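Friendly challenge for the regulars: who can give me the structure tokens for this chain first? No prize, just bragging rights.
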Amino acid sequence: MTLGWSAWAVQWLSRVPCAIPDQVQVAYSHDAAARSAFAEQAAEDWQTFLTMRSRELCRGGRLVVLTMATDDSGNFGYRPIPDVIYETLMEMVARCFIWKDEFRKMVIPTVGRTRAQLTEPFAKGGCFEDLSIEDFELFHGEDRIWTQFEARDDAHAFGAQWAAFCRASVFPTLAASLDGAPDSARSVKFIDELETGVAARLAAAPVRMTIPLAQMMLVKAISSARRSA
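First reply, four minutes later:
Bragging rights claimed.
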């Protein structure tokens, strides 16, 4: 390949390294062991991703990567969303819609790497697996749902749109922890009720989401370089 594009992929870990005892999103967990395990898995996966993409690129080829990130102040963003998901799941446990053992396994295996974590493989000599960073930008994306809320003052629509986004992006991952087939009637009902609960909680207190993103342009060396260990 001469040009590669990857968006919304590298933030997903290849596996869940451990349970998160106090959250569904490790960025907001207070458990040091869980945070460390996720950071180690994220570092391993990032190096694997770079190695595989380098093998696919021709000499002089470029790869653009867009991903969730943690900004320079240490903020992963989206704070209200994992909080209301966790609250809704606890409420579902309280009324015995899901079991505690199922709840404990529910994790969103995404990470927002920091600037240092994204650039770390390139720290020695500026190259990793013949790839080098040609351009790097860490920025905040626009919360278009909030912009619509400001224009229309419709809290219900605000909550519904963010809940629909979560349903498409992360709810199936949570549903995979339920006992039984992932496409069962119970799984569908779980996702429906989770969406309803999240929408209601977000509508009750609309807030602009912080959306840290990183964009990188990587280039493969024209001539072979000494590969990193």
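The domain at 3-220 is CATH 1.10.1200.270 (Non-ribosomal Peptide Synthetase Peptidyl Carrier Protein; Chain A). The longest helix spans residues 32-56. Your move, everyone else.
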